Amino acid sequence: MVPEFGGSSLLLGLPDDVFAIISRSLSPRDMCTLSLCCRSLYGLVASEKVWLTQCDNVGIISHQDIMEWRKGVASYRALCRFLVSVKPLIGIWELGPLGIEEGPILWAPVFEIIGDLDGSTSFFLHGREKGNDHVYPGSVKSVERNCNVLFLEVESRQQKSKLFPNKSFAYGSDKELARKLSRSHYGLSRSQRLIIQCEPKLPFSSLPFTDRRKLIDVVTSEVGQQVPRLENRLLFPRLRNDEESFQKDMALLFQRRSLLLKLCKLGQGFNWTEAPEVASDPTRLQWSEIRRILDWSSGSLNGDDNQMESNAKKSLGGYFRAYIRGIWGKSSSINGSHAHSKHSSSSRQSKHAQLLEFLGSGDTIGLTLHASKMKLSSYRAWPNMHDSQFALYKLPMRAPRADQEYAGLWGGTFGWPPRGTPLKTGLEKLCSFF
Amino acid sequence: MSSSTDSPTLTTETTQLSPQPDTETAKPTKKITLKSSDNQIFEVEESVAMEFATVKSFFEDSPSTDTVPLPNVTAKPLSQVIEFCKEQIKFKANPDEAQKKKYNAEFVTEKSDKDLVDMIPVANYLEIKDLLDVLNQAVADRIENKSVEYVRSFFGIDNDFTAEEEAALRREHAWAYEGVDED
């Protein structure tokens, strides 16, 4: 036992607390790096204690809450994953001047990000249709660490789940796993690229505004799910005044979360082995569906698509077609009104081509939240907001004064007070319950 | 571990080279002999040796011994640890946080990766808490945000994952690397 301390045997030979001290000053990323070094370190890093420390280090929720939230996920590591991914979203977000003024959604008070069992994130846009609360499930696209704008986007994506028939590694969410894969170039060795490149070549933001708006309309109208009013009566636990009512709150919230996750997963979890080809993820529209509409083939639209059948609230075909037509009609009318020259038709065509290219880069489309860093000009500390984006803007944060309580995560809405006066949005602890 | 009694002749010079009376307590100090696993002998002042909790309790248990065998410790890291503790004693006599911080920082920056890594188990075994904290922090600083390959070579770890396992693990951990630029 004497001679070579060194290598992993060094770290392994140390008592837990020494390793814990080292890990305390390391980031989750470093912990992952360590666990990738070798089997023994992997085992060491896998401990709950290590990841509890990491959760504490992320520092966005109290230790007490961490313990509470742990109940909703598979491990502290999963919790940490979730905390890390939402951390950049914390702040006060101001909605841009743009709302979706027409279309089925009238307003959406907040969005919500929920962590799944493995710590992966699901995105839920809130909205109201015909007086009922709705949620529009989607995904969280990359969140840049120092993001200052949140975009509501539609994402075109390969339905990759079929490529991963076994779920050995991600705890259950193949979709999530596959999505991560597509972004493997974010920090992994080049050897990781092998998998799939399905990053849409054409970003959503480069589509013309009208197309973007219509796409969002189409997707939200399809993925939207009505939420029983009951489920929405409590979004956050109330102040921890007495333990009993707090626990009651938590139980309610837990229920609500499970329901939302089920909405999001419906179909993905069930039937999955019998019909992997169908890959019916109700939060995404399949390309075959879109293409069929684009082809204007008027026949047999409601025959063979289980996914839509199982979730659809309305007969899809004509409805959808109308939307796509709407997209095209709209953009052409805009072009047409500006110029009568031949340019208009060619530019219309190129716009259609763009839309097609965007849709063609994957086989499904879905709603997504994209947090990115943009150079923003500002006026008196208020960012100048652009008319043509569905976005929330982060406001500079002031340290809370002694008499103010920092309520955790903050958020706003994607639009919807009629354009003009941006609303200072709810000072509530917002997204990311669990 | 048979501690041969005639080995004190090997006494390393370095540890005795600084007998400057300085500000240290004027009364003649008792020397304690430490013996490393590679049979090097270190004579240190009692006050320094008492910084080592392990040695201290050894003496408390058997006060009559004159040589403390340290079977888990090789000479090089031990000499560095002694060097560190001597300085700490001075700071104990003359508390100067800023100076102490500066010294601690210099102490680790001038050490090679290997030296640092080798000292950790020694500091741990001898239960020198201050040093352990300093070393842990230094190691953490050195591997922070580094690649897996870098960390492996830092600790001299052999990768025992298969290529497939590693690829799968990297996918599983991809979340931690998102939104961060590789450096």
Automatic annotation (TrEMBL), chain A:
PROSITE patterns: FBOX. Transmembrane segments: none annotated. SMART domains: FBOX. InterPro entries: At5g39450-like, F-box-like_dom_sf, F-box_dom. It holds the Pfam family F-box. Coiled coil: none annotated. Residues 8-54 form the F-box domain. This is F-box domain-containing protein. It comes from Salix suchowensis. The lineage of its organism: Eukaryota, Viridiplantae, Streptophyta, Embryophyta, Tracheophyta.
Automatic annotation (TrEMBL), chain B:
Residues 30-87 form the SKP1 component POZ domain. GO terms for biological process: jasmonic acid mediated signaling pathway; protein ubiquitination; ubiquitin-dependent protein catabolic process. Part of a SCF (SKP1-cullin-F-box) protein ligase complex. The keyword Nucleus applies. Its main location: nucleus. SMART domains: Skp1. This is SKP1-like protein. One of its GO terms (molecular function) is ligase activity. Residues 129-176 form the SKP1 component dimerisation domain. The keyword Ligase applies. It comes from Salix koriyanagi.
